[in-house]
Amino acid sequence: MLRGFYTAASGMMTQQRQQEALSNNIANANTPGYKADQTTMRAFPEMLMHQMGSSNIPTQNGLNLPTQNPIGSLNTGVYVHETVPNHVQGSVRDTGISTDMALVNGTIPDETGSLFFTVQNAEGEARYTRNGNFTVDGDGFLVTTQGYYVLDDAGNPVQTNGMEFDVTPDGLLQVEGETTPLGIAYTENANELAKEGDGLFSGDAGALPEGTTFTIQQGFLEQSNVDSLQSMTQMMESYRMFETNQRVLKAYDESMGKAVSEIGRLG
């Protein structure tokens, strides 16, 4: 019976983790470039149950041999193995703001590969993002809405000297006759990147391999790839599963209480 407690409790904890991920997705449904989190669940190792017994062998001195009769397998519960962002590209929306940029994937060599803008976080380290909701700071540098510098292909902050600049489809920022290539990074497996706050990812990303193509659309933004309707449906399903495990846990608790009270009366 105690195994049933643990199994039901693990189901409740798993659905709670699922609810947290879905709630975060819905909260970021309007965040540009946001990648929805997907939880993967795994079962704990199953145990093969046997009935322990003995068999009396009719010999002169008598002989009892232990026996094991298979009963079946017992599942010991489920847990959230990991939370993985879905790197499918979101839809593109026209904003008409010159500092907004949408990075649209073209030809990608690997199915799990993806392209990112390169930015510099508060610690001066390179990070990657799909959120092209940029602006220009007081010093004329192109920055994210959190104030992180947008980097060029040499890893330097991009200087625009104001809001008047153009970005070509192949990622060249043009201002006052000077051209600066934006730092577009590529990773062959986006699932290996670690998701951080403010829409940033950390990990191994680098130069574009041969044959990779993309388009920068100035005045556009890539939207979140969260499907709000689907997420709400999944939340309802997860909540029902949580309630089911809760009822199972309550039933085990009532059975345990009844067993204890009856054993006490027998004493």
Automatic annotation (TrEMBL):
<dbReference type="InterPro" id="IPR010930">
    <property type="entry name" value="Flg_bb/hook_C_dom"/>
</dbReference>
<dbReference type="Pfam" id="PF00460">
    <property type="entry name" value="Flg_bb_rod"/>
</dbReference>
<feature type="domain" description="Flagellar hook protein FlgE/F/G-like D1">
    <location>
        <begin position="113"/>
        <end position="173"/>
    </location>
</feature>
<comment type="similarity">
    <text>Belongs to the flagella basal body rod proteins family.</text>
</comment>
<keyword id="KW-0282">Flagellum</keyword>
<keyword id="KW-0966">Cell projection</keyword>
<dbReference type="InterPro" id="IPR019776">
    <property type="entry name" value="Flagellar_basal_body_rod_CS"/>
</dbReference>
<dbReference type="Pfam" id="PF22692">
    <property type="entry name" value="LlgE_F_G_D1"/>
</dbReference>
<protein>
    <submittedName>
        <fullName>Flagellar hook-basal body protein</fullName>
    </submittedName>
</protein>
<keyword id="KW-0975">Bacterial flagellum</keyword>
<feature type="domain" description="Flagellar basal body rod protein N-terminal">
    <location>
        <begin position="5"/>
        <end position="35"/>
    </location>
</feature>
<dbReference type="InterPro" id="IPR037925">
    <property type="entry name" value="FlgE/F/G-like"/>
</dbReference>
<dbReference type="Pfam" id="PF06429">
    <property type="entry name" value="Flg_bbr_C"/>
</dbReference>
<dbReference type="InterPro" id="IPR001444">
    <property type="entry name" value="Flag_bb_rod_N"/>
</dbReference>
<feature type="domain" description="Flagellar basal-body/hook protein C-terminal">
    <location>
        <begin position="217"/>
        <end position="260"/>
    </location>
</feature>
<dbReference type="InterPro" id="IPR020013">
    <property type="entry name" value="Flagellar_FlgE/F/G"/>
</dbReference>
<dbReference type="InterPro" id="IPR053967">
    <property type="entry name" value="LlgE_F_G-like_D1"/>
</dbReference>
<keyword id="KW-0969">Cilium</keyword>
